[in-house]
Amino acid sequence: xxxxKILLSVCTMLQLTELASEIEQDETSEEVKLMLACVNYVNxxxxxxxxxxxxxxxISVEDSAQEIExxxxxxxxxxxxxxxxxxxGNKINFTVTDSGLKVYKNGKMKVCFAYFxxxxxxxxxxxxxxxxxNERIFAYGVAAEYLFIKGxxxxxxxxxxxxxxxxxxxxxxxxSTILPIRKFK
Length: 185
What we know:
The protein is an alpha+beta fold.
């Protein structure tokens, strides 16, 4: 998904023809910056509340009593640590502190963590969610945020409801249906 296409979809939904022409011409007016801020806000909402983005990084620990700062692990802003695994594939006990991670073993290990997505620009592509989210769903969220900021609360609520309904549909876990065994006489 390309940010520019998402913004053009929002402009079509909200009938903002002048803003659409500014986006097509790569102008960075205040309205375009506002729309970009809405895209980044929606991206953060999705990554924190609906579909977490995970990354696995290999690190080497020499002193198990030492705290490893998050900045030494990755440049991303941490949202949470999912697991720490050693070279053999065994889970390692760890503690998350305000500024880093404490592991209770020496050696090479892999840290799997959730993080906040990077800030997006007009020509960036959103690839964090694989095939789960499409431009339309993203555009619903951006339209809602844009209208909330503009003070058009009734329309914003409608778009927000569509956005959340679509996200819940995508992220809900479906239960498998098990039929009882039929007995023949």
